[in-house]
Amino acid sequence: MTTTIARRSALKLSALAASSVVLPTLLLQAAIAQTSRKLTPSQSEGPFYPDQQMQDADADLLKNGRVAYTAGQSAWVSGVVSDMDGKPVSGALVEIWQCDHEGVYRHSRSSGNAPMAFQGFGKVQVGADGRYRFRTIKPVPYTGRPPHIHMKIKLGSRELLTTQMYVAGDASNARDFLTRSLGADRSLLEAAFTRGSDGWQAEFGIVVKT
Q1: On the CB side of 159, how many CA atoms lie within 13 Å of its CA?
Q2: Cys bridge to 119: 53, 64, 139, 196, which one at CB 3.0-4.6 A?
Q3: What phi, psi does 196 have (nearest 5°)?
Q4: Strand, helix or coil at 37?
Q5: 61: closest CA among 7, 110, 118, 102?
Q6: In the prediction, which pLDDT does 38 show?
Q7: DSSP β-bridge partners for residue 69
Q8: What is the rounded average pLDDT of the residues 170-185?
């Protein structure tokens, strides 16, 4: 009996010692993960934030009202808007805008008054999971710029971030005047586009300061 009690005590002490090592380790790992999260770098809004009245501004940029846009390469762009602690930013408004397959923006200085089939701009409000999703085209280059999609994140009346998302692996990213200064952080603005059954797919997580 005495031997059994002693053995049980030794096992309890061993478990306690192990937990005293594991718990701080887990806490340290959690702290490292939290501090290693980086804010998504901001970028300029650019000159082509839409200035024209639109009949459609939803998450499907390939359907502008009743007009379908069939040019370019269709793509789904999605991700989660989260804060520095990794928590989804519920209720955030995500806006995107980009040029069509010929490099034309929905802006008076780009398209003038010419009608456009491409919606060119979309917005969606995220739910509790912070996830957004847009149907659009894989971005294309135009004179002086690599392929990119402009993005803006708002929360209520506050603008949290304006940035641009680039295509990972595109050689022109390193030469772009807006991304050269980012160094290694340029990767935070790059999203990999992969082929899916429903067009190209890209996942782009956004970290903002709330």
Answers
A1: 8
A2: 64
A3: -125, 180
A4: coil
A5: 118
A6: 96
A7: none
A8: 94
Q: Is there a contact between 200 and 138 (Cβ–Cβ < 8 Å)?
A: yes
Domain boundaries of the chain, sorted by first residue: 1-36, 63-207
Checking if the pLDDT of 89 tops 90, the result is yes
Rounded to an integer, what distance in angstroms lies between the CA atom of residue 151 and that of residue 165?
Answer: 7
Alpha-carbon distance of 13 to 27, in angstroms, equals 21
Alpha helices in the chain (DSSP H): 2-36
The band of 115, judged by pLDDT with boundaries at 50, 70 and 90, is confident
> Which two structure tokens, joined as six digits, stand for 124?
């969606």
Reported residue count of the chain is: 210
How many CB atoms sit inside 10 A of residue 14's CB?
10
The CB density around residue 31, as the number of other CB atoms within 10 Å, is 10
Q: Indicate the CATH number of 63-207 among 1.20.1050.10, 3.30.70.890, 3.20.20.70, 2.60.130.10.
A: 2.60.130.10
Q: What angle do CA 183, 188, 190 make, to 5 degrees?
A: 100
**Average pLDDT across the chain, whole number:** 88
* The pair of three-digit structure tokens given for residue 96, joined into one six-digit string: 């995107």
pTM, entire model:
0.82
3-state secondary structure of 157: coil
What's the token pair of residue 111?
């398209």
List of residues 6+ apart from 39 with CB closer than 8 A = 84, 207, 208, 209
Q: What would you measure as the largest C-alpha separation in the chain, in angstroms?
A: 93
